[in-house]
Amino acid sequence: MTSEDLAGTRLLALDVGSKTLGMAVSDPLGITAQGLPTWRRKNRAADFAELERVLREYRVAEIVVGYPLHMSGGPTAASQRIELFAEQLRRQFGLPVHLWDERLTTAEAQRVLRQADTSIRRRSQVVDRMAAVLILQAFLEHRKSSGDQSIG
Question: Is 8 inside a domain boundary?
């Protein structure tokens, strides 16, 4: 697949876990983030096939991957795994892939869901999606405030 096959204007955010991929996509103008169903990870081939489907369906131009860091800003044990995953995305899909600090996004997602009186069972089903939304919204807001509106 070439980047021309996937050309679009939306951004896709991923909250990458060992068992799930939380996903969110921007609107075409890059203003808001909308959660997508969480993907239960199977293997690399199945995971990348699902990502290819999402990239095509939403005409994604860029990918934002949540990057785990310690509160001090240093890398965590998972940081290297996420860097490798991001590089695999770049090679597979030929799209720009951005690593974005995801510190506190899962905790914030849990807080938002608690405040919305979401049941514990339901929270566990949507927390990865909500984390991806928060990652993407923070990335979009940073891009807007920095004046960098470029796609690609």
Answer: yes
